[in-house]
Every structure is written in structure tokens, then in C-alpha cells.
Specification:
- By secondary structure, the protein is an alpha/beta fold.
- The protein has 2 domains: 128 residues, Response regulator (Rossmann fold, 3-Layer(aba) Sandwich); 141 residues, Histidine kinase-like ATPase, C-terminal domain (Heat Shock Protein 90, 2-Layer Sandwich), CATH 3.30.565.
- It contains 9 helices and 12 strands.
- Strands 2-1-3-6-7 form a 5-stranded parallel β-sheet, sandwiched between helices.
- The chain starts with a strand and ends in a 5-residue tail after the last strand.
- InterPro entries: CheY-like_superfamily (IPR011006), HATPase_C_sf (IPR036890), HATPase_dom (IPR003594), Sig_transdc_resp-reg_receiver (IPR001789), WalR-like (IPR039420).
- It comes from Isosphaera pallida (strain ATCC 43644 / DSM 9630 / IS1B).
- Keywords: DNA-binding, Phosphoprotein, Transcription, Transcription regulation, Two-component regulatory system.
């Protein structure tokens, strides 16, 4: 007998809730509809759903859909539950807001059965894949390419790090590495074009924290960086920078590499992975 998958449905419109619940049942999911007097977070904890469908228009008191999504994604117990955000048509603003709080997929209103089925399949496949690799949690961020947004993101990440086994020293080192690599992406990858989104993925495993910083630029040749410091000769690049009227600096990559346990760029040079391992358990 096939296992019945569970879905928590958080919408503010009764007719819409009834329609989506019917579609979920037809797709093989048992729907649990959040009632006005019920805290959706409690419902998620009670039923351990395979997916949450969240209407962008939902609101309860001072909490709206984005705040609810953020809460689910920031809690260790609910982090890997995929959240599908139901948006107003193809609103890019709704999608950007959703990305900022960790939404995993999107459905445009009015929701069609075939679109719902596709989103459910993608969401459950995402979760199965991460569980297969031993991932305990993941949050994906996309921010404007501005240093103030990077600072705010780093503050949020520090809050997440504080709930892991990382020491205070490790947290400071990882924050600095994110600052350096995020700054490089903004300055060099995006050439300070604030409208190009900077993507940062936070992943937690049983033995480590991984951060992936990706820009939308063309990348670079990692073997040809005359303006950046190298371990062989950390100051040789300064002459090149002076000759090309570049500001002092160029130490970001070398510094970040020394602050983490693993450091690697992709082939294109527009994505860097930072890994910090937890200290041995006492």
C-alpha cells in the first residue's frame, strides 16, 4: 500500500482552500488546512507534512505569509519541509520576496491542477535528494548586489550559525569569509550593478556548514588574477593594482581561503563554496 503524503495548506480564502484541498487529494496528498484559530507552525509540527502550500495573501494578526515562511525555514525541525508560495500571477516582486525568506517553489494564482502537480513533484524530489545526501537543512537567499544587503544577510547567517556547533571563533571566521566573497561577487562579478541578484545558499550537514555564493557574472580565470594576492607572493599584486589605478586590496580570496576548512570555485569562476566543519563532539 502506497504511503499517503501529507500537505499543510495555509490560505486566507475558504473557497480557495477548498479548491486546493480537492486538488491535493486528487494528487495523492492528505491535506491539512490551517484554520483561522490555528497556528500554522503548530500544524506543521503536528503532521510532519511533505510540503506546505502558502498563499502570499495569507495574514494572521501581525504575521504575514513571508514571516511564516521565514519561521519555517529558520527552524531546524521544519527547515527541510518544502514551501510552495502561491503568488499573484507572475509577480516578480512576490517571487523575489519569497526567495529572500527561503520559499522553494512558486505557483501563480489561479492555480491549475497540472501546475500544482508539477510543483509538488519538484518539491518532494528536492527534499528526497537532500535527505539522500544527509543534508539537515537548507536556506536559499537572493539579495540585491549592495553591501548593505550583504551586511544584513551576514547578520541573518550569524543567527543561523549560532544554532549550530560552530564556536564563536568559527562563526567570526565564516562571517568574514562570506563578507569577502560576497563583496568580490558584487564588485567584480556584478560590477556593482545592484539589480543583478546575488545568490547565497546555506546548508547544514551533521558534520559541517556549507555556504555557496554565486553571482550572475561571466566568471574569471582562476589561474590569471594579477590584481589578487597569492600565497606564493602575497604583495606582488600591489604593483599591478597601482599601475592600473586600482584601490588597495586584492586579499579577499587568499583571506577567505584561510578562514574556512574547504574553499572551491566552480569551473566558470562565478560560484564559490565555503565549508566550515564542526569541532569534535565532547
Amino acid at each position: 500500500m502506497a504511503m499517503v503524503r501529507r500537505a499543510v495548506l495555509v490560505v486566507g480564502n475558504a473557497a480557495m482552500a477548498e479548491s486546493l484541498a480537492r486538488m491535493l487529494s486528487e494528487a495523492g496528498f492528505e491535506p491539512f488546512v490551517a484554520q483561522p484559530q490555528t497556528d500554522p507552525v503548530d500544524l506543521v509540527h503536528a503532521h510532519h507534512p511533505h510540503v506546505v502550500l502558502l498563499d502570499r495573501e495569507w495574514k494572521a494578526g501581525d504575521r504575514d505569509a513571508l514571516e511564516l515562511c521565514r519561521t519555517l525555514k529558520y527552524q531546524r525541525e521544519t527547515n527541510l519541509v518544502p514551501v510552495i508560495l502561491i503568488t499573484n500571477g507572475d509577480s516578480s516582486d512576490d517571487r523575489l520576496d519569497g526567495v529572500r525568506v527561503g520559499a522553494d517553489a512558486y505557483l501563480a494564482r489561479p492555480v491549475r491542477p497540472e501546475d500544482l502537480t508539477r510543483a509538488l513533484d519538484q518539491a518532494t524530489a528536492w527534499r528526497r535528494e537532500h535527505e539522500r545526501h544527509g543534508l539537515a537543512g537548507e536556506i536559499r537567499f537572493r539579495i540585491r548586489s549592495e553591501f548593505e544587503y550583504l551586511r544584513q544577510l551576514n547578520d541573518m547567517l550569524a543567527d543561523l550559525f549560532a544554532h549550530t556547533r560552530l564556536t564563536d571563533k568559527q562563526i567570526k571566521e565564516l562571517r568574514q569569509a562570506v563578507h569577502e566573497m560576497g563583496g568580490n561577487a558584487i564588485e567584480w562579478g556584478h560590477r556593482r550593478n545592484a539589480d543583478l541578484p546575488l545568490a547565497v545558499t546555506y546548508r547544514i550537514y551533521p558534520d559541517k556548514v556549507t555556504l555557496i555564493v554565486r553571482d550572475q557574472g561571466p566568471g574569471f580565470d582562476r589561474n590569471n588574477l594579477p590584481h589578487a594576492a597569492s600565497e606564493d607572493d602575497p604583495v606582488a599584486h600591489m604593483e599591478y593594482r597601482m599601475a592600473h589605478n586600482m584601490r588597495d586590496g586584492g586579499f579577499g580570496i587568499m583571506m577567505a581561503r584561510g578562514l574556512v576548512d574547504e574553499f572551491a570555485y566552480n569551473e566558470e569562476g562565478n560560484e564559490v563554496t565555503l565549508v566550515k566543519r564542526f569541532p569534535p563532539a565532547e
